[in-house]
# Entry
Amino acid sequence: MIILKEEQIKDLFAYCSEGLPNESCGLFAGIITDDVKTVTQIYYLKNTDQSPEHFSMDVNEQFKVISQIRKNNLQLIGNFHSHPSTPSRPSKEDIRLAFAPNLCYIIISLQDREHPVINSFTIKGGIAAKDQLQVME
Ligand SMILES: [Zn+2]
# Structure
């Protein structure tokens, strides 16, 4: 299970909307206990592809974020990216490029601009399974 605050989700939606027409991306960190992953930090990274159909995170930014996460004694929970005009589920490309079975892959769909959709997935051996996402106030 992954836990996000309502406010964090609002911020994510706003960030991904600002990034249109391109995909936006970033990382999440927080506290992991057993099967519960509580997000405490969201890191907004640059999509160096500047593309509406794919993304690459800026390597230098990633490096800085990972060292910040370590310094703050947090754990990397996963990453997010937006789908400007497709549903909130991993594309074939997303599945092909998912090499971390322990991470959550959050996908924000802006297909319906007024009603963004957020889902989290675990991707193992080429198969994506939806995580249980709990929203806290
Ligand atoms: Zn994608």
Remarks:
- The two ends are 16 Å apart (CA to CA).
